[in-house]
Amino acid sequence: MPTAAGDAVGVLDRMTCILEAFDGDDRGMGISELALRAGLPKSTVSRLVATLVRQRYLERDGKLIHLGLRLFELGQLAEQPRELRIAALPVMADLRNQTGENVHLAIRDGGEVVCIAVMRGRSAGPSTVRTGGRLPLHATALGKAVLAHDSPSGIDDVLSAPLAPWTPQTITDPAALRRQLTGIRGGGLAVEAGEFATGVSCTAIAVFAPEGRLAGAVSVSGYQEDLDADRVAQALRAAALTLARRLGALRGPSD
Q: How far apart are CA 112 and CA 30, in angstroms?
């Protein structure tokens, strides 16, 4: 007897077959042609297409089915961190070598930041996040660095929600956190001192693409008693500027 998990995987496999039936010349297909290309029964394709249309992964134009806007949005999201990682890895290596500390690269995803690259420092300080790990905006230097450059309404949305205390040092007072964000937006570095993990400090700076779009944030972290934000500030600022230039070089003059 099939399990619920098995049924879910089967549905996902069939949806994948439908999406992969499209090629680069997307002029749209009817249900019959789509079923033929996907190798699935027409009734199954009709049912799954209805679901994919509701979720915006496909679009319906009369009898023709096209790839939907949501797929292009997801593709753009995947391209941005890949480009950022390519540009950042040598910069992160230099920053790690200069400071001896752990270096992290993160991007924002909704109400969190996602770490997309980690380099361990010589000091072997504690690394509290892995590649792919998610971090809260309010309790981490990486999160504060990107949140500070959000719109006023976006900041209000975050600060109006409960600010979970990850440690006794986590700033849970919206007014105090807002003051920090104002300082960061004015050119300061984002700092956390034992706010996400006890005994660990982190200093971060936002990274901007050449056109001014916020690309992510890069940070240096280590033992709280050893990491001096002033000591790593110059190296962090230089890394952010270098990374912005590298992003511009990757895109080329016509982008």
A: 40
Single-letter residue type at 27: R
Query: Which is it for the CA torsion 169, 174, 179, 181, positive or negative?
Result: positive
* Helix, strand and coil percent figures for the chain, each rounded to 5: 45, 20, 35
**pLDDT confidence of residue 190:** 97
| pLDDT tens track for 32-58 | 999 999 999 999 999 999 999 998 889
Task: Extract the tokens encoding 168.
Answer: 């006794």
Task: Centre a 10 Å sphere on the Cβ of residue 194 and count the other Cβ atoms it contains.
Answer: 16
Token look-up 């991007």 returns: 107
Residue 246 neighbours by CB under 8 Å, 6+ apart: 87, 88, 90, 91
How many angstroms separate the CA atoms of 241 and 62, rounded?
50
